[in-house]
Every structure is written in C-alpha cells, then in structure tokens.
Task: structure prediction
Amino acid sequence: MAYQEIQYEVRDGVSTVTLNRPDRLNAFTPRMSQELIDAFDQADADDEVRAVVLTGAGRGFCAGADLGSGGSTFAYADEAVHRDRGGLVSLRVFESLKPVIVAVNGPAVGVGVTMTLPADMRLASTTARFGFVFARRGIVPEAASSWFLPRLVGISRALEWAATGRVFDAAEALDGGLVRSVHQPDELLPAAYALAREIADNTAPVSVAVTRQLMWRMLGADHPMAAHRADSRAIASRGRSRDAREGVTAFLEKRPAKFPDRVSADMPDTSSWWPGRPWSPLSP
Result:
C-alpha cells in the first residue's frame, strides 16, 4: 500500500509509524485507519522489526476524528453492521506480534488517545494533552476503549475522564497511569527509541511476542487457572526451542545471547491457548 497519511520507516530493528497529516493535527480518517493496519501487518511480517514506535508529525499526535463532514461525521448508514474504524486499528494493535511504544508528542484526543490504549507503553511530551471527549460531542467512547481503558487506569478514573470529557495534561495522565513517563519535547523520541532498543538488543523476539499475547489476553480471564494453562503450554513450547538453549548457554558463558528463532517461522500455534478466543479484528 502506498501511504498518504502515515509514514513508515525501519531503522536498526525498530519501525517508526508516524501519523502524517500535520496540517490537520493528524486528524483520523478512514484512509489513515487502513494505512495503520497495513503498517502493523508489515511490522509483524518483518523479522528485522523488533519493536514499533508510533508517533505524530508536527505539533500534535492526533486531534481525533476528522470532523470535515460536520454534524453528519458520525451518522453511519447501518448501525447493525457498522465497525468503527478506530476499533479496527485498536484490535490490530492488540494482535501485534511486536511490542508497541507510543510517543505522544502533542494533543491526543478522541480516537487519538483511544487507539493508543492497546499499545504496551505510552510516553508523553510535556506538551501532550489527552481527552476522552466523546460525551461532549454527543457520542460514546469507541476503539474498544470501554475494554482497554478501565484495565489500564481503573474504572473510577476511566469513568471520570469519559463522563466529563475534559482535556487534561500529561501530568494527570502520568498520575492516572495512562502514560509511563513524561519528557521534554526534544527528549521524547530518544526515550521511546531507548526503550525499543532495550527490547531489540537483549531479548528473544518469539519470547517477547508470546509474552505480549499472554499478558494482554489474560486480562480477560476469569480465573488464574486460564493463565496457568496458557503459561504451561508456552513454557513447554519455548523450553525446547533453540532460543532457550542459546539463552541459557549465553548466560552461563557470560556473553550476549544471539537468539536464532524468528517470529515469521518459529511462533508456536497459540490458537488453542486462549479461553473464548474472540473474532479476528478484520473479520466482517
């Protein structure tokens, strides 16, 4: 896919996905959603990519849905079959085989914040502003945020932010657990890349992919036994792997590990691991 509204770059094992409509504060469009899904497909298929950094061009991260259609922006033709575009992106990020780090470089409002919730880590600039503004627009939160947000920040904080619809600063986002750290603008991307490099330089890619899926999916389990079963299958699968042999040997020999397994070829079939596995994010 030729990208018009995002940029995609791979360097030193890290892919950078940049929302690229700076003249519109990177406002979200159907085209942008398609391009984002394609970019995450690319990252998953590329064994050179060990982590994904998502950020925005210009002074904003994403100002939310493009409201160029005016009052009819959210008047979808058939509510029975409608799938919101932000939700398609969120579910694709949720399914990612690579860890996802978001560098929120400016305002992140509406879908501009909800689509970041399935990411693994969010870092914010001191200039970042956040807003779950849906109730102030006469609509409701989307992008599966009713599932993600309470799990990240707790039900009370999630409802406060969603019910008031107010815009808040990076300090409040940090206090509420929405972001892991706050940085000066010129230090934000270096901090995100440093985190990505720590993953890329020290860990086994298949182990990270499986660990990411275990942790996210177990958020919905109703008993720790589900996690025990999935963990047991995972450790049995990876314990026999070339990566496990290399990881232990490298530790004993006091040298950096060189993990041979690749996500594209060596991922275990996890389809039977998850209780009540949900529908595919791209299914009709």
